[in-house]
């Protein structure tokens, strides 16, 4: 199987050979031996070959601008002094740059403490969710048991049903958690309620019911179904149990899917504010801080005075920049493995 480098080299040589063949045809005047229809066809193909790269560039440039417009506007605004927002002569590039917006927003959001809390919450919940969803997806892919189709239908419902439907029952369950000795164990003896405790995120993830868990189970199921059955048969012949086979045989072959699901989980937990705001009354996560940033800016920077969004938009965009920077840094370092995981996981099937 040819590598990407060899494929690129082959395509380059093919194009060079085609150009050389066209040059030879021109040199010997091959068009004298062609019919008028063939001559028109060749000229039309040459015109298309000349115009298509320009047309393709314009399409891609337009699409990229539409997709990147919010990011460009955010970068242009976050480092701009607030008084320049009312200057009609400034569109994209400000006359001067400042870091005060970022520094002030950092303080309002308590970003150092908030970032640490969010990373710990996201990492623990994502790791638990990857482990439990992979085991569940492996069970659906490889084992036959009564009620399998019904249970998988419930998994599909987890993808379709919005979280707003299950939030109130979950809140009541966590607010009046029973047995109480477990609640006191989770909260270190402070109360019998799990509200404002990270366990409101950890427990659903531990039981494969966290944020977007249905989609992750489906991804693992599709990937494990695509692996050769002979791998497990050989392990069973060697005396391996199903769990040992899963750990030693299936997990090494599913590295890309694990990484894909882990990155998806990190991003969705990072951006979640609906579920978090239902279980946390304190602003402990980046998403919640960003959601309430407008109110906090008015209270701390403007002493509670009523201001328009245009007056504080530079601080709002600075907050957006701070919130997405860790995710962008993570993607820069892991994007190659992420793309490979998308290609090989159930999303590509």
Automatic annotation (TrEMBL):
Pfam families: BPD_transp_1 (PF00528). It comes from the Bacteria. Residues 115-334 form the ABC transmembrane type-1 domain. Keywords: Cell membrane, Membrane, Transmembrane, Transmembrane helix, Transport. GO terms for biological process: transmembrane transport. GO terms for cellular component: plasma membrane. The keyword Transmembrane applies. It is a multi-pass membrane protein. The chain crosses the membrane at residues 50-72, 115-138, 150-172, 199-220, 253-270, 312-334. SUPFAM superfamilies: MetI-like. It is found in: Cell membrane. Coiled coil: none annotated. Gene3D superfamilies: MetI-like (1.10.3720.10). Belongs to the binding-protein-dependent transport system permease family. This is ABC transporter, permease protein. It comes from Ruminococcus albus 8. The lineage of its organism: Bacteria, Bacillati, Bacillota, Clostridia, Eubacteriales.
């Amino acid at each position: 199987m040819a590598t990407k480098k060899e494929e690129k080299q082959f395509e380059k040589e093919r194009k060079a050979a085609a150009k050389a063949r066209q040059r030879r045809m021109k040199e010997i005047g091959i068009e004298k031996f062609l019919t008028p229809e063939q001559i028109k066809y060749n000229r039309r193909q040459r015109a298309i070959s000349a115009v298509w790269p320009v047309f393709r560039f314009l399409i891609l440039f337009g699409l990229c601008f539409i997709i990147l417009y919010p990011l460009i506007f955010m970068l242009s605004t976050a480092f701009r002094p607030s008084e320049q927002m009312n200057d009609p002569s400034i569109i994209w590039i400000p006359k001067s740059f400042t870091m005060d917006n970022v520094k002030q927003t950092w303080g309002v959001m308590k970003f150092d403490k908030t970032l640490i809390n969010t990373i710990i919450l996201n990492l623990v919940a994502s790791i638990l969710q990857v482990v439990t969803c992979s085991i569940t997806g492996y069970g659906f892919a490889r084992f036959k048991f009564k009620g399998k189709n019904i249970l998988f239908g419930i998994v599909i419902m987890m993808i379709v049903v919005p979280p707003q439907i299950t939030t109130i029952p979950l809140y009541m369950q966590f607010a009046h958690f029973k047995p109480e000795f477990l609640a006191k164990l989770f909260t270190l003896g402070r109360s019998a309620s799990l509200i404002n405790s990270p366990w409101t995120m950890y427990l659903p993830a531990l039981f494969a019911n966290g944020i977007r868990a249905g989609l992750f189970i489906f991804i693992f199921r599709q990937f494990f179904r695509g692996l050769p059955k002979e791998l497990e048969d050989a392990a069973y012949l060697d005396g391996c149990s199903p769990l040992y086979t899963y750990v030693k045989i299936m997990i090494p072959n599913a590295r890309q899917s694990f990484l894909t699901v882990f990155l998806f989980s990190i991003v969705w937990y990072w951006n979640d504010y609906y579920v978090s705001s239902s279980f946390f009354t304190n602003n402990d996560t980046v998403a919640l801080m960003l959601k309430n940033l407008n109110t906090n800016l008015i209270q701390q920077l403007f002493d509670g005075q009523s201001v328009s969004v245009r007056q504080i938009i530079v601080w709002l965009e600075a907050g957006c920049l701070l919130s997405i920077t860790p995710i962008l840094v993570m993607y820069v370092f892991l994007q190659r493995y992420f793309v490979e995981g998308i290609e090989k996981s159930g999303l590509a099937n």
